[in-house]
Amino acid sequence: MKVEIDIDEKYQDTVVKITSPRLTPEVEKMVSLLRMMDSQIPVKKADETYILDAEKILYIEAVERNTFVYTEEEVYESGLKLYEFEARLSERDFIRISKQGLLNLKKVKSLKADINRRIRVTLVNDEQIVVSRMYSDELRSRLGVK
Amino acid sequence: MEDNKTIFNYIGQVFTTFGITILIFVAMAAIIGEEAEGYGTLFDLGKRGLSLATILELFAVSIIITIFRDLLFTDKWIKSMSIFARNTVFYVSVSLMIALFVVIFKWFPVEDFKAWLGFFISFSICSAIGVIVSRLKEKAEDRKMNKALEKYNNR
Hey, which end of chain B has fewer CB within 10 Å, N or C? Predict the structure, then answer.
């Protein structure tokens, strides 16, 4: 296997490109390792940094200039902005639910329609959050009900 | 997680409510205006339309309705009260507010028991229809969304 690294200021983003004549188990393993790396989120709590698996996140909320990451047991802070989380996690099960929030659909217990097309979400830990009217249609179409 | 509202959102809501209210009252003036002329201040122009004073009073009603709706339908209340409870509180508050306007602006004679009975019966019927329709719609949508969620999570 040949590894090429090209570092240049002309690139705006980090891109990993795999070229192979066919899809081998080795290529699949590389892809899953890269995906796993991408789903590890560095977060902070009481001056300690943790690496959090995206699957454990219930939702992410931006409050003023801070971003908070909620799991079933803990609340962490992250240096990443909400749009950065969205770019990293939208291909997984995360969806924008308001200008301030991202929700992990895999952690949703139930949904309830509310007035003004808003949706009340009950999470697996029974916490409730609200999907704003602006983003409720996106949630409906992600679930295939629109 | 509520999206921040600007003053223009509130102004838009007030004018939407105001527009609907004016349409309803203009229709009422066209239908019962002639009989109601001189009975109270609400239809003092008879079937010719609504007076400036009545229009301004209805504008004040629209502002108060927008405030009630905004208070009751924020995230805080969505999480702690059912739609049914919020709708009930909303309609009771609005009917009490309108009753206050009737007394202050003499929309119809305060001592007329039949007028009060008519007002509360018609308002209750309209409110009940509104609540029942929204409840049925809400139940059907909940079923559809939760079925889709289950399907999504079992993929």
Answer: C
